[in-house]
Amino acid sequence: MGREKYIRNLVLNAVIVLTTVFSSCEPGTYADEQKTEDVRLTFATGELATKSEDPDENKVTDISLMIFDDYGALEYAWWFSGQSLATAMSEGVSFKMIPGKKYNIFGCANFGYRTLVKSMDELDDIRYHLTRPDDYRSGIPMSIRMEDVSIESGDRTLAIPMKRMMAKISLKIDRSRLSGDVSMNVIGARIINCPKVISVFKDNTVMDESDFFTAGFSKLEFETDPLNYSDAEGCSRELALYMLENMQGNWSVEGIMPNDPRLKISSYIELEIEYLSPDKASIDNPLMYRFLIGEDSSDHNVERNCLYRITVTPQNDGLSKDGWSVDKSGLCTFVKQINLSDSEIRFEYEGQSHLLETSIEPEDASYTSLVWLSDNPRVASVSDTGLVTATGEGECTITCQSRDGGGARASCKVKSKFKDYYFILHPGEYIVGDIGDKIHIWCEIFPPNTPFDLGYEELELDKSRGIYDYEPDKDGLGVTLTLLKSGRGMLYMSAGYPINDSKLIVVEVNQR
User: Fold this and answer.
1) Are the beta carbons of 95 and 16 closer than 8 angstroms?
2) Could you tell me the pTM of the whole model?
3) Domain 167-333 is of which CATH architecture?
4) Closest CA to 56 of 154, 142, 127
5) Closest Cα partner for 293 from 285, 282, 283, 301?
6) 322-380 pLDDT tens trace
7) pLDDT tens digits, residue range 252-284?
8) Which residues contact 32 (CB under 8 A, 6 or more apart)?
9) 397-418: string of b/e by CB count within 10 Å (b at 16+)?
10) What is the 3-state secondary structure (H, E, C) of 39-103?
11) Which class would CATH give 337-416?
12) Phi-psi region for residue 466, left (φ > 0), alpha (ψ -120 to 50) or beta?
């Protein structure tokens, strides 16, 4: 990740033009005892620009200006807003100064209200509060601070710098080192731990989590488009975020854990990314990049009036650490390969079925559920569990594919050619035996899944008459009779669809 910090002599300067003739004065005398001349104050702001998505960095809506003597007592105070600000900027303001005397000039701009104290001792108590992270309707808050200023006779101009009390973070993404089959689309960029209050005239170091907006200045969805447009070299356009100063000092991010207490008071960037690669994708939740703001990896001071240029450079699959945290928990790991138990199935009759068993690679794939399809359901259908059933003669292909969208699939050929159906009875339809004989009566049927009735009602009737006792075969297609009494019995065996046939068996029992 590339970082640069530019400390700018902020784009907005107030130039005080002093038009006066100074007379000599003796040390120790007060200003109102001296001969003074009116001076004229004018403010030169340069061209003001209006932006629709970002705060207007040059906008000035009001200025509070205070001048203190060398003892720290207030001598002059102004508040310019509305028409008075326009008049002050266009026509100037009357002002009196004594040559050789030291003055201290302090001020605030874009606060929306007058800021006034009686002495310099009270300046440290002045704080500026944001109601929300992007509350810049009055312009970016600015401060004026010039100490020990003196004017010599004939010196008529003072340039008073106005410092923004905010830092600007300019983001870019360089995708030139990203693998060509990897897509990273930014859908959110925000400052986490964005200060909501700042000390105006001293370094601002936030110590309490209550002084933060948990989610600060944000750009969402189409607002992040600049990060998704890249030039020929793979570098995106710039996206700007803004925050109040937060000086958190020097400490290393090496080995930093997400629950480290320093992260609770340091400000950092969070990028929300739609991610797609041959192996993973952000199906349920986005990929999250998080990195601390500062001049380098150990300096976490976010200083007012500074521009921080940060270029995020993902490499290869874009999932390696590029900051203090890359949260991949929302990514789905694609199924790369599906293995089927059979590459071909042959069916011999309608309704015949076969279960295709599967295994997937890698074993830690996020979504293991599969989608089953038949390209000709008139030949064979397939269930959600991979059970293939013959529905007619012909050929078709059963396809199994991953549900995660990664594209993994496998297929199995199906060939159906049905045999003729039959119902064969053994040993025959008329059976003769003696008391004590054991006779096995059984059937051959095709197809084997045909519903079959062994004729239990008739068997039970003959058993109750004492003609024979019986024991069914385990496969349900036959029965063994033990002949007990002379007489005649009957069995009625039937096969259902698709055979739809029945057999009547007569059993004659002779007495020896």
Assistant:
1) yes
2) 0.68
3) Sandwich (2.60)
4) 142
5) 301
6) 667 788 877 888 999 999 999 999 999 999 999 999 999 998 888 888 999 999 999 99
7) 877 777 778 888 889 999 999 999 998 889 988
8) none
9) ebbbbbebebebebebebebeb
10) EEECCCCCCCCCCCCCCCCCCCCEEEEEEECCCCEEEEEEEEEHHHHHHHHHHCEEECCCCCCEE
11) mainly beta
12) left
Q: Is 329 helix (H, G, I), strand (E, B) or coil?
A: coil
Overall fold of domain 422-510: Immunoglobulin-like (2.60.40)
- What's the CA gap between 478 and 422, in Å, rounded? 16
DSSP label at residue 241? E
CB 217 within 8 A of CB 191: yes
- The residue assigned the tokens 């005239």 is 201
Kindly report the length of the chain. Answer: 512
| Class at the top of the CATH hierarchy for domain 10-164 | mainly beta
Phi-psi label, residue 385: left if phi above 0, alpha if psi -120 to 50, beta otherwise: alpha
Structure-block tokens of residue 21:
């003739």
Tens of pLDDT, residue by residue over 58-87, are 888 999 999 999 999 999 999 999 898 888
